[in-house]
Predict the structure.
Amino acid sequence: MTKDNEELTMHDTAIHDSKGQYFWVWAALLVLTAIEVALGYKQVFSPVRMLEVLLILSIIKSALIIGYFMHLKFETALMRWLLVLSVVACFTIMYFFFFPDADRIINLGVH
Amino acid sequence: MAEATIEHDAVQHGLPGAYEAPLFGAYSKKVGMWLFLASDSLTFGALLFAFSYNRIYTVPWPTPFHAESIANATIMTACLLSSSLTMVLAVFAAQRGDRPWIRNWLLATMIFGTAFIVLHGMEWSKLISEGLSIPGFMSLLGVAKPAASGELADISKNVPQFPQAFFGLTAMHMLHVTIGVIYLGVVAFRRWFLPALAVIWIAVALLIPSGNVFHYPAHVLGLGLLVAAVILFLKPKDYDAHDVEVCGLYWHFVDLVWMFIFPLVYLMSTKVT
């Protein structure tokens, strides 16, 4: 077996960290969900502000899931950056496709 | 001399390409799954962008989800989050080579996933019976005729964007969860899973009337049974730690997508009185 494959096998089968951190991530996800539900019940924000707040919370939750549960945090830097940047680039293109009209609607003052 | 040894080892182990340096430092199955998930995230991304756009330009946007619906959706979210934790524990068991616990944790993940599907189906049934429908589409499917009046019936008539976006997004996600449960079953139980899946398929198809929303997963289960049987009989194998990790990636992705659907679709359409 070559060195690369030996490293690959060791990398892939290594138990990265203690189980405890996954329970903490799970608890954090439940707490963030509870915050979202509380915001939904209270309705303290306008719809656009609420959309922004919920999106930020969702991005934090998705980062926890991708980083820890999906183990991307433990992959090589090349894989991490290539995956994240390519998906973010695609979403940015989508955002700029929708953004001008969404901005126009918001500035019409309907909310 | 060194080349001859490598060639000999490759032939001996029957692993063509095993001695190439791994791109990204990961095995090819994992890289393949990540690429699939990246493309699938764009599918859901486009749907969520379309939903958000609808949400902003439709004034007033309906708020048909009250305390009961939000409580139900919160339990569904907890089920998916807990299923991700049991999936992580299955990967740990796979890394230890502990077969009984791989099966146990994968089964726990499947139970949480099934609970999510059942809760979601019950909610769909309730919404449809109270009048939420996509004009023309429900009668095409033969789903029981929804109520002609009431809050949800009015929404379906006056703001058809809402039921279209709601049913489109959640159906797409539920399809992914169903496929995920079948995928986990194949990895956990291999050929033993096929008779169980066949029994569930026949039970769902025969016992649930065609006008009920629970009848439709039967088609997905039937197709899933066919695909799983073809895979298991054409390429029978003993799934290893890598396979458990790769199916875990798919399962966590299903959880990840719900983390956007739950706030955007449910919490942005809530009115708690």
Confidence is low (pLDDT under 50) at residues 1-12 of chain B. Residues 173 and 254 of chain B are 7 Å apart (CA to CA).
